[in-house]
Amino acid sequence: MEALYLLIPLSIVVVFIALWVFFTASDGGQFDDLVGPGLRVLQDDDTPPAVPPAPQRE
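Structure (tokenized):
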């Protein structure tokens, strides 16, 4: 029973910390665009860049 006197306030503090972290990330724009990065990966151009010709020796 005595453990509850420690665990209940500790769990309340942990919940408030988790909520604070979530709302801080939300206000910072962390969750603004969830679809864009996934689509950018699919639209990425995977062709290798053109290799310039090697200089010719004389």
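The chain has a mean pLDDT of 84. The two ends are 91 Å apart (CA to CA).
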